[in-house]
Amino acid sequence: MSEILLSLCIPTNGISELVFPVLESIFTQEDVDDNEYEVVVMDNGTNDNFKKQMHNLEIKHSNLIYKETSLNGFLNEPECYRAAKGTFIKFINHRTKLLPGSLKYFISFVKNNMFQKPVVYFGNDEIRNITGIQHYPNFDLFVRNLSYWSSWSTGMGIWKEDFDHINNKTSFNELFPHSTILFYEREKNDYIIDNSKLLYEVNVGHANKGKYDLFRAFSVEYISILSDLYRENSITLDTLLKIKKDTAYFIANLYFSFVIRKKPCSYDTTNLKAIEVFYSKKTIVWYVCKWIVSYPVRRIKVFFTYK
Questions:
Q1: Which residue has the higher pLDDT, 282 or 148?
Q2: Mean per-residue pLDDT over the chain, rounded
Q3: pTM of the model
Q4: Which CA distances in Å does 10 have to 44, 82, 92, 196?
Q5: Handedness of CA 193, 5, 156, 99 (dihedral sign)
Q6: Is the CB of residue 44 less than 8 Å from the CB of residue 118?
């Protein structure tokens, strides 16, 4: 049997209408050797019908591993990584399908980089100012160019060997375990942002994406992670301030969408005081205004919503 090169890890709480289309997008990929990859699904949900369907699917696909865990929330992710056996682990969001050819692309990445094992983040054509594949010689430049996208789990990938160094040696941030993992290796010679379009996120809106405290997550927890990197001399002050500024713009976007326009979401958006831990009210209000003014279509929507 060939060595398992790639583990596609899918943490989930058992939403059938999302997970099974994602699995189909994987197992219908062409021109790949099934022995070179595995799919690991880690379920912390309570959907009995989902569990039954997954066990049936395991019988059909020998490279599918289905496990259950009692770990809640996003801590499901590192638990999924623990179960992986591949040389490289790629996180797959349970609502994100693989585009045709993506599985072959990931396997080729592993084959081409398995000896040097660079740190990599797959931006999926979402990161502005990053075209194609960019290499950075140190951790600080990698973090700076990645900016607040390091809070986005969908781009995560890590070498199993590197993850095993982390496992049981550090505590994972409960809201951003992927950021804890991504930021662990700080002394490598090659850091990569691959912004190729490889995945397709099913648009399910924000009504069923989680019930966490949204503004505490991005205004406090995430900025605290970056502040720790600065205190540990792993990133420069310029990098910290740049990402803090970029994140303020992102928070303003969230504020405009879910507080001002009151778009439906499952998040807790009531803790507005959390924004003031690292930011002033004036800063966020300024970015909200700037965000609205920058997009004429949004100005029109605001007019008709509040006239």
A1: 148
A2: 91
A3: 0.91
A4: 11, 12, 5, 20
A5: positive
A6: no
E strands within 36-132? 37-43, 64-68, 88-91, 96-98, 119-122
Q: Taking a C-beta distance cutoff of 8 angstroms, is the pair 33, 104 a contact?
A: no
Residues 6+ away with beta carbon under 8 Å from 162: 117, 119, 184, 185
DSSP state of 268: B
Cα distance between residue 159 and residue 195, in whole Å: 18
Per the CB < 8 A criterion, the answer to whether 20 and 51 are in contact is: no
Query: Beta-carbon neighbour count of residue 282 at 10 Å?
Result: 8
pLDDT digits (tens, 9 = 90+) for 25-73: 999 999 999 999 999 999 999 999 999 999 999 999 999 999 999 998 8
Residue with tokens 């973090």: 143
Which tens digits make up the pLDDT trace of 112-136?
999 999 999 999 999 988 999 999 9
Chain center to CA of 298: 27
Altogether, the residues listed in the chain come to a count of: 307
Strands (E) in the chain, as ranges, are: 6-12, 37-43, 64-68, 88-91, 96-98, 119-122, 133-136, 157-159, 191-194, 199-201
Rounded Cα gap, residues 307 and 302, in angstroms: 8
> What is the residue type of 278?
F
Residue 161: phi, psi to the nearest 5? -60, -40
Place 207 in a pLDDT band, splitting at 50, 70 and 90: low
CB 244, CB 278: distance < 8 Å: yes
